[in-house]
Write a structure and sequence with these properties.
The protein is mainly α. The protein has one domain. The chain has four helices and no strands. It has helices spanning about 10-30, 35-50, 60-70, 80-115. The protein is globular and about 55 Å long. The relative contact order is 0.17.
Amino acid sequence: MATGGKGVMGFIGFWAFIIGFILAILAGIFWPANATIVIVLVILGIIIGFLNVTAKEFMLFLLATIALVVVGGQAFTSLGTVGAKLGDVLSHIAILVAPAAIIAAVKALWSVAKPGTSS
């Protein structure tokens, strides 16, 4: 994922993604039912959506997000405790990127719907 822009805003978006990704992994392993962490992940996802997803990487970002949300926490349930932890980690990563995907999708719709953009 690119830094989304130059300067401080791109830096903030990049670090929001790194911190959110690490927090999602740790939360999935150690605190899977913590509502406060979920709220923090959603807020970081909103920051990522506004500052970090560029038009150039929009399609790849949405494809990856859809894959994470579809797979979610159910893919590894047959692997016992380790599978449950992997599922929790994936669920938390999906919680992080879902708000960013919604914002990116709305930004894309907005750019398509703007007058003068059709050929």
